[in-house]
Design goal:
mainly beta, Immunoglobulin-like, 2 domains, binds copper (II) ion, YtkA-like domain-containing protein, signal
Length: about 270
């Protein structure tokens, strides 16, 4: 009898210890990074991207071709890329105040060279971000500021949203988190309803091979977060993703989803405590 009591007590003690320190998730994090190291999957430091616009005077609202060359630190072309979410490169363009967002897909020309033709809608500074997975080197992003000619209008302040419900293209989209903390893997869920009828939207179509695509940037556009869907095959009303915010601060999140053949983009600004 006494033995049983002791073992119950011990179990309780162990459970309490795990719960209290949150050491469970820390251990898990360590395991992940260890695994990544062992797989040699993060070689971002050894890879560079050269962004070459077709002109050094980029004008707003005019077709501009940008060549993106992916190479090693010593200038050797890197020429093999994994296809991730149906593409070998995802290319994100944002204005400095993050009010303008564009997500496009450059064509791979071989020999580490991609090209894309786009238009910048205004003057000012834009950040371009290439999201790639060179084969065997892991997922990474490379970015550069690009200047568009003309006098830019004053940047808008980036303020955290008071409410995480937005209406876009007649869809009411609510963003929620299981817990909102820096430096901890977390789940973010977009819940999508018809804005008029309030009925759950259940006929989302796959977009880039998943229920949706999410981009997250720090307020200064310097940090591009890795986000992945946790249930790729979902069709709504919930679209779930996983990410880790590297530090506290203000982040902008764009969720992109497809219904009836049309992609809609929902932006949110959040404060991570
Ligand atoms: Cu993409």
């Amino acid at each position: 009898m006494q033995k049983i009591v002791i073992s119950i007590l011990l179990t309780a003690l162990i459970l309490t210890a795990c719960g209290k320190s949150g050491s469970g998730s820390k251990v898990e994090e360590m395991d992940h990074s260890k695994m990544a190291q062992e797989a040699g999957s993060n070689q971002a430091e050894n890879v560079q991207a050269v962004f070459k616009p077709s002109t050094d005077k980029i004008m707003p609202n005019q077709d501009t071709t940008i060549m993106i060359k992916i190479q090693s630190k010593d200038g050797k072309a890197i020429d093999k890329f994994d296809t991730v979410h149906e593409k070998q490169m995802h290319f994100i363009i944002v204005s400095k105040d993050l009010s303008i967002f564009n997500h496009i897909h450059p064509d791979y020309k071989g020999n580490g060279e991609f090209t894309v033709t786009t238009q910048f809608p205004t003057s000012g500074e834009f950040k371009v971000i290439a999201d790639i997975t060179p084969t065997g080197m892991g997922a990474m992003s490379k970015s550069q500021w690009i200047s568009v000619q003309g006098s830019a209008s004053a940047p808008k302040a980036i303020e955290p949203d008071a409410t995480l419900t937005k209406v876009v293209d007649n869809k009411e989209v609510t963003l929620s988190f299981d817990h909102l903390m820096a430096n901890m893997e977390l789940n973010l869920t977009f819940t999508i309803k018809d804005a008029q009828t309030k009925q759950p939207v259940t006929d989302l179509q796959p977009y880039l091979g998943a229920v949706g695509h999410v981009v997250i940037l720090t307020q200064d556009a310097e940090n591009y977060l890795h986000v992945h869907p946790t249930d790729e095959k979902a069709s709504g009303p919930d679209a779930k993703f996983m990410t880790t915010f590297p530090h506290s601060g203000v982040y902008k999140i764009w969720g992109q989803f497809q219904q009836n053949g049309k992609v809609f983009t929902v932006p949110f600004v959040i404060q991570v405590p």
